[in-house]
Amino acid sequence: MSYKSVILEVKGKVAVLKLNAPDVLNALSGEMVRELSVAVSEATHTDQVRCLLLTGVGRGFCAGANLQGSASSESAEPAGSVLETHYAPLMNKLRNLPFPMVTAVNGVAAGVGMSLALVGDIVIAAESAYFLQAFAKIGLVPDGGATWYLPRLIGWGRAMELSLLAERLPASKALDWGLVNSVSPDIDLAEAGMAMAIRLADGPMSLGLIRKAYWASWENDFNKQMQLESDLQHQAQQSADSREGVAAFLEKRAAQFKGQ
What backbone phi and psi angles, to 5 degrees, belong to 233? Predict the structure, then answer.
């Protein structure tokens, strides 16, 4: 499919998805969200793809929702409705990916753009990147799943601080807080993001099951989680990758996984 606001490239086993509206720091329009959702589906249904790498074109990852014209337009769709019809389906689609996801955060990740950055399983930020829960500055409420993500990722106090004060969180502090996995020099971010994505794409099919287990753990009680682990372990053990992993261990060689 041809896209206007995003770029989707399949490089080997990695689907590289880029937000492509650099003139507005990749602020999300309704059309861009729709294209993102379609592109994620396309990547998911491309047989060789085993990891998704999400980043932005230009100086910013994503400056949040594109508010141009929203304040003056009487016909503008209510924000709550847009969340239900556009953002929620996209975020759920990303949550339910069958393979790992890496986000490479270049520049600003604000508002819903911050939520989009944090949905990655591995988050790599450029040194110049920063995160911003900007909603309080315009009289709105954090969205895109932020009120669910943030307390679980960094604790109640820090989540409230970011949301109520609406102050920038630089990449270095985000790393200290455990919000991102690593910080890279700006010039090396693209390479670092791709290297991580390739590493995950070369892993066994069980990586997708691992992310499924961890996502479920935020909602399951202990017994349900133990049962899920048992079910997923059975599924993983039946895979060709598991057989290859065991054989490679016994033969003292590097495993050659095929994602099957």
Answer: -65, -40
The contacts of residue 75 (CB under 8 Å, 6+ apart) are none
d(CA 258, CA 244): 9
Structure tokens at 124: 């790599």
What are 93-108's pLDDT values in tens digits?
999 999 999 999 999 9
Q: Is the pLDDT of residue 76 over 80?
A: no
Question: How far is residue 253 from each of residues 69, 103, 244, 247, 250, measured CA to CA in Å?
Answer: 59, 31, 10, 9, 8
Q: Which residues contact 36 (CB under 8 A, 6 or more apart)?
A: 6, 17, 19, 28, 90
DSSP 126: E
Report CA-CA distances (Å) from 234 to 174, 239, 241: 37, 9, 13
Beta partners for 55? 18
pTM: 0.93
Encoded tokens for 191: 């390479």
Q: Are residues 233 and 110 in the same domain?
A: no
Domain for residue 24, yes or no?
yes
The Cβ of residue 58 has, within 10 Å, a number of other Cβ atoms equal to 16
Q: For the chain, how many structural domains are there in total?
A: 2
Residue 107 identity (one-letter amino acid): G
Q: Is the dihedral of CA 141, 144, 145, 151 positive or negative?
A: negative
Sign of the dihedral defined by the CA atoms of residues 141, 144, 145, 146, in that order = negative
In a domain, 167, yes or no: yes
Specify the CATH number for the domain of residue 23: 3.90.226.10
In Å, the largest CA–CA distance within the chain is: 69
